[in-house]
């Protein structure tokens, strides 16, 4: 077949009379042996469009919900405590914004005659408990995430891959609506010293508003956890084997772009202000709303169709994705990997108890655990606090946060090339080793800087920020994308739903641990908190060095040979 014919777009309505069409008898039989590698292992417009619609409707939204709150914490935390007025802000960047945008005064105690102009200080004996309460919205996001991730196996089994992605979108749309409502029913815009009656009036619907706020964060988290299973499965199953790593990494790339755009939107010159943060958190709901319409233009997963014994539809879907009629070799490869009459989807208990899946499961769980326990979410959830701890002040914290998003995006774009060039294993093992060194150095600089007087903090603060940015680069080229790709590659079809759900559950459970305990631990042990991350990374490095196989461009049987 000529290259011109290979690249031609084939519509869903192709008839059997066309000379290049795969014969009906060929696509209906799952045990045909075809010599040679599949053709058409390349990018097509249909493949690219499918990736863009899926990741913008799901993965990107997850990224915005990780990166955005970091900028809005200075407004959301006092608001949730019951202090909704513009000048009631904690020391740091939030006070700088209040001075610039609301003309608040923080060096004149006479403006606080009623006692409500400033945000009340937290008693030292209640500091850890209050910090835990302040992080509740992130905790609920993560609780929703690991419930959504655990539920992924059921969406995976009960719906088609495309329909499961569609089912993800209503949660995000409802979450956006609830987020918009919050600041309209409970707010305060009094810039003078409010009295108790004014404060009580503003708080009238506080509990209702905060309930909407927390439900919104939970729904956003549920959708994010669910998308880590259903979206990554779809991307893995529509991609050619030669592009599987790159296509799978598009999920992480979209998250990273979402984090950066969430950070940009959260700047005070855009929506990061006292009276607009709810829109900064909610605007992203437009994307799943659009995606819920566009999703029906995408082809169904050919692998799922083969599993369902719908061979003709699988061939039709594959033709559309590869934009060619020459799909016979790839179709037979899919049939050989995905179909067998004796195969049935295995439950979580069976996968956990079977020695056959021991090392695929352990390495997947460790990879997903260390993705979070490396400390990356401490950076993206709480980098404003981290940079303040390191010694940055006022608007410099904003630029530090923005730098994390930019560096993360650049490194992830590089990773898209490296993941197929170097493979999965080197991009995990050696960056983990380097992260150990970075965490030790970061601890030393932050602890030393804490002893410096205020006027001497900035120099060491800049060194600490450089270490954090290096950590982000090391994370983004390996730990960022590879856990999602690897977990889809190492399980046979009958264990894939349970294995992937377990991996994503552990991922989100560890994210929960970071969201819950980072601020209290930071308050208790300050810079030494990074030594905990160092310990987790060292343990993961040791296990993965000996037990993680290379999966790049390999069939499942070749991967399984590593553990035998």
From TrEMBL:
Signal peptide: none annotated. InterPro entries: GLUT, MFS_dom, MFS_sugar_transport-like, MFS_trans_sf, Sugar/inositol_transpt, Sugar_transporter_CS. Keywords: Membrane, Transmembrane, Transmembrane helix, Transport. Residues 1-22 are annotated as: Disordered. Residues 51-552 form the Major facilitator superfamily (MFS) profile domain. GO terms for cellular component: membrane. The keyword Transport applies. It is a multi-pass membrane protein. Its main location: membrane. Pfam families: Sugar_tr. Belongs to the major facilitator superfamily. Sugar transporter (TC 2.A.1.1) family. This is Major facilitator superfamily (MFS) profile domain-containing protein. It comes from Adineta steineri.
